[in-house]
Specification:
Elements (H helix, E strand, L loop, with lengths): L3 E7 L5 H12 L4 E7 L8 H8 L20 E6 L11 E6 L10 H23 L8
């Protein structure tokens, strides 16, 4: 399978999209190029996002927030996390909005709940890609 280019997008690229990138790089990297980015500048990945991922043995401590212009201009798959993010036009073959609540400002337990939802969605995305349930234009 030709490598796919996948990006996870949210407002600040400081929490949900970083967790999704971490899971996809861990479990789907054999057939993908994975990115995450935000629509607004932010200074760091949320410490509770890093901690929640570390509790699931995924290290995103070296991740940092990126803006849309730091990822490829053309994608195979674009995943938005929710929170009303309206992305500028990013050419892609498949787009999904996961509509996940932002745990920022919440407890570690809230981050873990969001993390677990993201993990489930990432595993489903990997399954859909492998089973060719996602139709990508050539």
């Amino acid at each position: 399978m030709e490598p796919l280019t996948i990006a996870f997008i949210c407002t600040h690229n400081s929490c949900r999209s970083q967790m999704a990138e971490g899971y996809m790089k861990t479990f789907g990297d054999s057939f993908t190029r994975i990115y995450s980015a935000g629509t607004e500048k932010y200074h760091q990945v949320k410490p509770k996002a890093i901690e929640a991922m570390k509790l699931d043995n995924i290290d995103i401590s070296m991740h940092y927030p990126k803006l849309l212009d730091e990822i490829p201009a053309k994608l195979d798959i674009l995943i938005t996390m929710g929170c009303g993010v309206v992305c500028p036009h990013i050419p892609c073959n498949h787009i999904e909005d996961w509509n996940l609540e932002d745990p920022s400002g919440g407890s570690l337990e809230e981050f873990i709940i969001t993390r677990d939802l993201i993990k489930k969605r990432v595993f489903q995305l990997i399954k859909d890609i492998k089973n060719e349930n996602i139709k990508l234009k050539e």
